[in-house]
Design goal:
Structural class: mainly alpha
Distance between the termini: 25 Å
Radius of gyration: 17 Å
Shape: globular
Strand order of the largest sheet: 1-2-3
Number of helices: 8
Largest sheet: 3 strands, parallel
Length: 179
């Protein structure tokens, strides 16, 4: 969680403008293309990020990540998902090779939200992406509901409702959800 905390804090206090970020990302795509990369998967949290690479090579598959573990945070994410007609909205797909709404990780996304996102991806024959089994802390949180992930999520007001750990490893948990 230390690495995640640093990443989130850096992003929140980034001094650059959207234009500077866009130019930097386009430069990185050009470098990837020049070294022979044929396809890029970009995982982001902001709807506007889908535009990075929309008219560049290599083609970009954009995954819009959703967060919402419990209570109000999960409900807000489900409402946001409902508003995004993610794969038929021309505003979202303009110039994109591919676009899909996906959950962030089992420790940050509730069961109902994970299932809804998987259902959308499957119904539209789109790729489904999720960070999973990346650390011992994630396993502890899903098995026991304790540890650094619980503290991190509470600090960020992500646990707005009761949380009952599934008591499973991350892969078994996703399997139990039909994912």
């Amino acid at each position: 969680t230390g690495w995640i905390r640093t990443l989130v804090d850096t992003r929140m206090h980034f001094p650059g403008t959207d234009d500077a970020v866009y130019k930097s990302a386009c430069s990185a795509l050009a470098d990837l293309h020049d070294t022979g990369t044929g396809l890029v998967a970009d995982i982001g949290n902001l709807k506007r990020s889908r535009l990075i690479g929309s008219d560049k090579l290599p083609p970009v598959i954009f995954f819009l990540e959703f967060f919402g573990l419990t209570g109000a945070t999960e409900q807000r994410a489900l409402q946001r998902l409902q508003k995004i007609s993610d794969l038929s909205d021309p505003d979202l797909n303009q110039g994109l090779f591919s676009f899909s709404c996906v959950p962030h990780a089992p420790y940050s996304t509730g069961a109902e939200l994970i299932r809804s996102l998987k259902k959308k991806a499957s119904a539209s024959d789109r790729l489904f992406s999720i960070h999973v089994a990346e650390s011992a802390a994630e396993v502890e949180f899903l098995q026991q509901g304790t540890g650094s992930f619980r503290q991190f999520l509470q600090e960020r007001d992500e646990m707005t409702g009761p949380f009952s750990p599934p008591g499973l490893t991350p892969i078994r948990y996703l399997d139990s959800l039909g994912v």
